[in-house]
Write a structure and sequence with these properties.
The structure is a single chain. This protein has seven helices and no strands. With about 200 residues, it is mainly α. It is globular. About 40% of the residues are buried. Keywords: Membrane, Transmembrane, Transmembrane helix.
């Protein structure tokens, strides 16, 4: 029986998220680490859910939709707050963390409860734009981490347009590999937090 190639792309993304989580988050302050963890783990959860489905495990049809909605809401909101803390060298406190989680979960609840999945397609690009604007402040301060976050958000944007990229590969595989590169760039941003560009 042939192996589904989507297995490898989802497994790669899942393992990359776990790798970046363990490799680069240890130096971050506690709540900053939690914000980055939400971003990384929601991406890995989506990949893991699809991985389980491709292995033949029977899951309810709503599981992948719920995981993707969580990534597009809570994960996207978390990356905005996490980027702000990284670029501004701000140590997140309880208020920022809990308000970020509350807003993300509220948006997630609205999408899942009212079945308006298309809202995730609006929330994620909006968060991406806000993240890029924050990175512009970092580039003005010649921060290497800002450049890595810009690369990361560029790959996230490309992942959402995977069906339109003219590569002889499944759009799902393209999406997963682009997200893998996005996660790796986020890890590099965390690694190079105090490095200067020029």
């Amino acid at each position: 029986m042939p192996i589904n190639p989507n297995l490898f792309s989802n497994l790669t993304l899942c393992l990359t998220g776990i790798f970046v989580f363990y490799k680069y988050l240890s130096r971050q302050p506690y709540f900053n680490r939690l914000l980055w963890s939400i971003f990384l783990l929601t991406i890995s959860l989506t990949a893991f859910t699809e991985l389980l489905m491709f292995t033949g495990l029977r899951l309810p049809d709503s599981f992948p939709v719920i995981a993707l909605s969580l990534e597009r809401t809570l994960g996207s909101i978390a990356v905005v707050s996490a980027t702000w803390c990284l670029i501004m060298r701000y140590k997140s406190g309880q208020f920022l963390f809990y308000s970020t989680v509350l807003i993300g979960l509220l948006l997630f609840y609205c999408i899942v409860w009212y079945h308006v999945e298309f809202m995730g397609l609006i929330i994620q690009p909006l968060c991406l734009i806000i993240t890029l604007l924050i990175c512009c402040l970092g580039l003005a301060g010649k921060q290497t981490s800002a450049l890595w976050i810009i690369f990361s958000m560029m790959f996230v944007a490309l992942a959402t347009k995977s069906r339109e990229i003219p590569i002889p590969m499944s759009p799902l595989d393209i999406n997963r590999y682009m997200m893998t590169l996005a996660v790796l760039c986020s890890g590099r941003a965390l690694r190079d937090e105090f490095k200067v560009l020029f």
